[in-house]
Amino acid sequence: MAITIKNEHEIALMRESGRLLALVHEEMRKELKEGMTTKDIDRICETMIRDFGCIPNFLNYQGFPASVCVSINDEVVHGIPSNRKLKNGDIVSIDIGANYKGYHGDSAWSYAVGNIDDDKKYLMEHTKKALFEGIKEVKPGNHVGDIGYAVEKYANAHHLGIVRELVGHGVGNNVHEDPDVPNYGNRHTGPILKEGMVIAIEPMLNLGSKDVALLDDDWTVVTKDGKPSCHYENTVLVTKDGYEILT
User: Fold this and answer.
1) Using CA atoms, how far apart are residues 122 and 225, in angstroms rounded to an integer?
2) What CA–CA distance (Å, rounded) separates 79 from 66?
3) pTM for the full model?
4) pLDDT per position as a tens digit, 176-213
């Protein structure tokens, strides 16, 4: 698949998809509480996505059985919603996608349930900051490797494990398009960013080592050492002089 450059019409649809996704996350920030199940989260998000005239783009994507991915503590990504209840002290990442008139938005955010310990606060703060370090590198003429380098440099400075098996990606007519956008890399390497490209940047950082494993459900990725992981993601447009966060 080639890297696509979006025209004004496509960008307008993606901007709307991203705006609606941000509203879903805002609602989840208010709704999340101890005792609710991860299935409750899935139901609330799916209802909002459909009420906005969008389709939840993860549902049945390569067989995924739910509308959103809900990953708790040592789950890195792709947690399948279930009857598991949120507990005080959990961190939960909610990865949501919406298809608006054929164009996709993709955004993950991590949330604290009740009172979390200082280690988890540290992990959340610095994973979010790593995301924005990566986003700062988005402008025409820079390379995808510049984004990965910035995320990696920040994560290493804060002694966080960088998951390497999972990466960001292009977004458009499909929720996952070229190019891959790793959270590590070297400056001036990889595809060159051009105005009209849309990419999802999504650091997945661990409090312990970078090593991860896939559970028997063939979806949920967990840290091998059982330590917490955190995930933040925005869909970002390359503009003529920098970037615009669509989500």
Assistant:
1) 18
2) 10
3) 0.96
4) 999 999 999 999 999 999 999 999 999 999 999 999 99
- Give the contacts of 247 (CB within 8 A, at least 6 positions apart): 18, 21, 22, 25, 105, 106, 107, 233, 234, 235
Q: Other CB atoms closer than 10 Å to residue 115's CB: what's the count? A: 10
Dist CA 245 CA 145 (whole Å): 19
Supply 167's token pair.
Answer: 């990466």
Alpha carbon distance 72, 229 (integer Å): 8
Q: Which residues contact 20 (CB under 8 A, 6 or more apart)?
A: 49, 52, 54, 98, 100, 105
| Residue indicated by tokens 């609602």 | 27
In sign, the C-alpha dihedral spanning 106, 73, 179, 217 is: negative
